[in-house]
Amino acid sequence: MLAVLSPGQGSQKPGFLTPWLDLPGAEARLRWWSALAGVDLIHLGTRADADEIKDTARTQPLLVAAALLAAEHLPMHDVGLVAGHSVGELGAAALAGVLPAESAVTLAGVRGREMAAACALEPTGMAAVLGGDPDEVIAALTAHGLHPANRNGAGQIVAAGAVEALDKLAAEPPARTRVIRLQVAGAFHTPYMAPAETALAAVAAGVPASAPARILLSNLDGAPAGHGPETVRRLVRQVTAPVRWDLCMRTLADLGVTGVIELPPAGTLAGLVKRELKGEGAPEIVTLNTPADLPAAHRLIARHAGPAARPAAPSFRVVVSPAAGRLDRSAGPAEGTEVRAGQVLGHVATGRGPVEVTAHDNGPLVEWLAHHDDPVAPGQPLVRIGGTH
User: What are residue 304's phi and psi, to 5 degrees?
Assistant: First the structure.
């Protein structure tokens, strides 16, 4: 199976779009998308310096536009799976056929502006924690009042929260780790972004969405996305929920992905996949950064596409935690019970009261993935529901 990956914020480099403007129609397409996103994508991708493209409001639509522009030159009908990291998920959703390209770029513009505005409300930031035991790292973040905003696998967890708490983490790092502050505007994928999630939800509610034409992995839990409206709700929820790229890579391995293409600006996700999915059966990887890389990408597609590249989506769906707190499944259905879409399966007890955990599909409750009274985080898988999809 062949997977195409769309990178997220932090992967951008000054001038990375310049060679793509030589392709027929590329400049006109970017001018159209600039009007939708409210930023000058041609300037940002060709002449802007590193500081200018570090601005969240500009970076997010730029990355989505770059991925979509490059993907237009690939035979996507031969691609079986797509996934994106953080804002890259909007690009992946368009490549999966859930959203039109115009909607993905427009939502990226709204998302970037609203997240930038949320960052300005109080001093927050992010830091990469490299190495160490993952459980010990998470425990240390919790002790400092920080959030695991990105769990990227390959020994990398990104902490996010108040600047003062990040300073304390750097001064008292978990055992066998290095803490590296990231040059970002705020604590993405945490409750600090709640105003941005609300604003994005208001716009996304009016966006038409279709069922995925190919497997689309969700950052919430690494599971294949379901029907269009549910996928859009997940994209909105991702603004405050942790990015579980580790679970996305686990699904790549579980589904037997043999080839990976990372869209521009490529390198970050390819590096994570290379470090995590190694040894026998490791996928072949192409990083697509300039049009000169297109022949290698086409050859990879020819080697790894075919009937096996488009299997039926796995016959299960995962219900994830809607909030942080403790799981109450005391009155929930037992494993093997038939459940229906919208049925309440349990609750998450939070400081603001109980939050319902509901099924988003019909089918048998195959497995509870968390025990009663377990502490759970937003986006954590709780229940596996079977079905035919």
Answer: -115, 0
Is 189 among the residues known to form the active site?
A: yes
Choose the catalytic residue: 189, 304, 347, 360. 189
Taking only the tens place, the pLDDT of each residue in 59-104 is 999 999 999 999 999 999 899 999 999 999 999 999 999 999 999 9
- What does the block give as tokens for 215? 């497997």
Q: Give the torsion sign (CA, 297, 298, 302, 303).
A: negative
In this structure, the number of other CB atoms found within 10 A of the CB of residue 119 comes to 21
Q: Return d(Cα 45, Cα 16) in angstroms, integer.
A: 6
For residue 338, the cross-strand partners are 364
- Tokens 């425990």, residue? 139
Distance CA 104, CA 254 (A): 28
Rounded to two decimals, the pTM is 0.79
- How many helices and strands, by DSSP H and E, does the chain display? 12, 17
DSSP-assigned letters across all residues of 247-268:
HHHHHHHHTT--EEEEPSS-SH
Compute the 3-state secondary structure of the chain and give helix, strand, coil in percent, each to the nearest 5.
40, 25, 40
CA distance 140 to 145: 9
Q: End-to-end CA distance of the chain, in Å?
A: 18
6, 11, 34, 86: the active-site residue? 86
